[in-house]
Specification:
The complex is a heterodimer of chains A (198) and B (376). Chain A is built from 7 helices and 8 strands. By secondary structure, chain A is of the alpha/beta class. Chain A has an 8-stranded mixed beta sheet, with helices on both faces. Chain B is α/β, with parallel strands linked by helices. An 8-stranded mixed beta sheet of chain B has the order 1-4-8-5-9-10-11-12, with helices on both faces. In chain B, strands 2-3 form a two-stranded antiparallel ribbon. The chains are: A alpha/beta (198), B alpha/beta (376). At the A-B interface, helix 3 and strand 3 of A face helix 10, strand 12 and helix 11 of B.
């Protein structure tokens, strides 16, 4: 899906990627991140998308895009082929979260994921007031949301622990400002760098 | 679309003669040969804007526009090629060529064999995709084209676009492989074999030397084409287009046409048998069956693709079961393995294999976007 939060997470993701790396961007939207990484870091990038309009937008953006259904997994890609597999603000839109995380760390040395944190204080307040949260990071109504999984940073970290996924780095943002205290409460968007134990 | 404003208009085929012998994959050597071709648009000063359009089984060099003597016969990819069309002839110099072994003017079974003074007929050697590309390279030399901005083709034409990237990696910058495959499946070869048997067992075939007998194996060619047409359409599209609709009000209780689909297939078969050469059909289906660049690499397609340097666009169509999306994905993953630039789109379409010739808006938007991104 298209990044609804602007591009501030691009900078964070770009910091973790070294020049010339091989990068797979899952749910790459219109290819903006890949284009950014290509121009700034000279990466060899491929996007994966299943939305025809986004595939077309990627071609217009001059980035590689492969039309596949992420729910069907990444079986066409080889083990460890990519340095980084990125999923920017799309993890909440796939049903088979566990399998996809495993697949990301099968085809990539490291995974970078960002997602809207359902645990943010404004979302908790909305629920406490009896309504599903609608915010800058969760801009949809319950009936038209492309999101199918709703989870907090704490939920995500628990899953990683269970799946033997190592959290190498994590960052939280509220709007465009970095959050340092109690991320699960204060961050509206979380960004993680993930790996496997050596 | 206004025919007059975005058509390449009236065009005339040209002929190139080549005297240097061409050694063919099957071991034969053609001492000399002709290729008939058409061009659209103008080459730029550096001749870096040339695009080769490769035809499929029944196609030819007449890709766009019309001929003075037959204004209704638009080129087979006229909806794609022209000024302002996705493959824009204001930017690109587009070349269409009739392949070796063809029946539209290039040297083939209906040409005279210089050794006998009679038509080659069945003695014309079986040629392969590799041979076609080698012959096309001679034409590129003749036209002063060092490197194609792009080579594009659908189906069997896509195999040629792929082969260009393997055989002449330094002479092709973009390869557009549409509704194609890295090799045919057993099922696909099986369809071709039935088509060939229809021709080979036609009493008018005369071992391929039917020209001397003043006949053509029209029955066999007609059956071959009818079979082909079934496989080019999807079940859904046939249901939508024909269903069980009857030609007349009631069932005929005879073997004349009852259903519209029968009428359609008979019409297509008759039409095709009226202009296409049976020996060319045999050769072309063999070229399809033989294409398998991974064969020399123990079946490892990724290893075969390692030579390529071009950027690729691979497109498949959701209901194409003759050249299924899965086959296109094999190409895509083989290219990714080699770190080559590739984009892949699987276009939603009801029209089966024939989709690649239609002007679905999303498909053509993709083609337009990709061609716009090609630097000349």
């Amino acid at each position: 899906m298209t990044n609804v939060l602007g591009r501030f997470d691009f900078d964070v993701i770009a910091k973790w990627i070294r020049p010339g790396e091989k990068v797979l961007d899952l749910g790459c939207g219109d290819g903006s991140l890949l284009r950014y990484l290509k121009e700034e870091k000279g990466v060899l990038g491929y996007g994966a998308e299943n939305d025809p309009d986004n595939v077309l937008a990627c071609v217009r953006n001059g980035v590689n895009v492969i039309q596949i259904d992420l729910e069907a997994g990444l079986s066409g890609f080889e083990d460890g082929f990519f340095d980084h597999v990125v999923m920017s603000l799309s993890l909440q839109t796939v049903r088979h979260t566990e399998r996809l995380l495993d697949e990301m760390l099968r085809v990539g040395r490291e995974a970078v994921v960002s997602f809207p944190n359902f645990g943010h204080r404004s979302h908790r307040a909305a629920i406490a007031a009896g309504r599903m949260p609608v915010s800058e990071s969760l801009p949809y109504q319950w009936y038209n949301s492309p999101n199918v999984r709703f989870f907090t940073m704490a939920d995500f970290e628990a899953l990683c622990t269970e799946r033997g996924i190592v959290l190498r780095e994590r960052l939280g943002f509220d709007g465009e400002s970095a959050v340092t205290e109690d991320l699960n409460l204060n961050a509206s968007v979380a960004v993680y760098r993930l790996g496997r134990a050596q | 679309m206004n025919k007059a404003t975005n058509s390449v208009g009236e065009v005339a085929p040209q002929r190139a003669h080549f005297d240097t012998p061409l050694a063919l994959a099957g071991g034969a050597v053609l001492p000399a040969f002709d290729l008939v071709y058409e061009t659209y648009g103008e080459p730029n000063a550096a001749r870096s804007n040339a695009v080769l359009v490769c035809h499929a089984l029944s196609g030819n060099h007449h890709v766009a526009g019309w001929h003075a003597d037959n204004p209704k016969n638009l080129g087979w990819w006229d909806n794609l090629v022209g000024p302002g069309k996705p493959l824009d002839t204001r930017k690109f110099f587009v070349v269409g060529v009739n392949n070796l072994g063809g029946c539209f003017g290039s040297t083939g079974p209906i040409s005279d064999n210089p050794a006998t003074g009679k038509p080659w007929g069945a003695d014309f050697p079986v040629v392969t995709v590799e041979d076609w590309v080698a012959a096309q390279a001679r034409l590129a030399d003749r036209l002063g084209i060092d490197s194609w901005a792009a080579v594009i083709g659908g189906s069997l034409g896509g195999m040629q676009a792929m082969q260009w990237a393997l055989e002449y990696p330094e002479r092709i910058r973009h390869s557009l492989v549409i509704a194609s495959a890295p090799k045919l499946t057993a099922q696909n070869i099986a369809f071709n074999e039935v088509a060939r048997q229809a021709i080979l067992t036609d009493p008018d075939f005369h071992g391929g030397h039917y020209y001397e007998h003043g006949v053509v194996p029209a029955r066999g060619l007609r059956l071959a084409r009818m079979l082909g047409h079934i496989t080019y359409l999807s079940d859904d599209q046939m249901a939508e287009k024909f269903g069980r609709r009857l030609r007349q009000e009631d069932l005929q209780f005879s073997y004349d046409v009852d259903f519209e689909i029968e009428s359609y297939l008979r019409y297509q078969g008759d039409k095709f048998a009226g202009f296409f050469d049976a020996n060319t059909y045999l050769i072309t289906t063999k070229a399809l069956d033989y294409f398998d660049p991974a064969r020399d690499y123990g079946g490892n397609l990724a290893a075969a693709l390692a030579r390529a340097r071009a950027k690729f666009l691979v497109v498949s169509f959701s209901t194409d079961w003759r050249f299924a999306p899965e086959r296109s994905r094999e190409i895509v993953y083989g290219l990714v393995h080699n770190g080559l630039d590739v984009s892949y789109a699987e276009v939603e379409s009801i029209a089966g294999h024939d989709s690649f010739l239609l002007d679905d808006p999303h498909y053509h938007a993709l083609m337009r976007a990709y061609f716009e991104g090609i630097r000349t």
